Input
Amino acid sequence: MTENIPPIPPAPQSYPSHALSGVIPGNEPPYGPPQPYTQPPPAPYGQQPYGQPQYAPYPPQQYPPTAPWQQTGPSKAKSSGFRVASGIIGIVLGTWLFIPSIAGFNNGSSTAFMAFLILLAALGNITAGILLLVSQRNRTKGAPATSLSTAGFALLLGFIGLVVEYYGAALFVTSLILAAPILIVMGIGLSREKRGA
Output
């Protein structure tokens, strides 16, 4: 395998004369050796010599112009913490409600309608939670109303689940723990938005 590689030629034993002096022939400095630095040459035609440019300060009551990307326009409204918190809890509640829904469908036809209602509440809470997180800077009432109604529907299904023997208190307790904070926090958030607007 190494027989196809040609041998490396030996290094030359003598060096060119310009290698020792550091000056390549034909590339000598035109004016002799470099001179030590003294002062810059005077600027022609009354220009200032090199250095820091002098800027005049802005007159009072006048501000410097801003670049187009720095111009301040109408600022967006602040993100509502109530909407963010309700959105996150709504997604958790919707995800958690999938478990009793699946269990109700697997039980048989006796709890299938209740499982279908729980599935609707789960999908509604997930959708409302995502809408709240996406529109957290808006002050429209659509997403909070949807979140409040689906959380209230989940809490109502928890109360009804006490009557249905298959679900018992588990559905009621989990929906109470997760739906009540949505109702409270979103209610406070809507009242503050209404008072502030």
User: Anything to note?
Assistant: The two ends are 84 Å apart (CA to CA). The helical segments are 17-21, 81-107, 112-134, 142-163, 168-196.
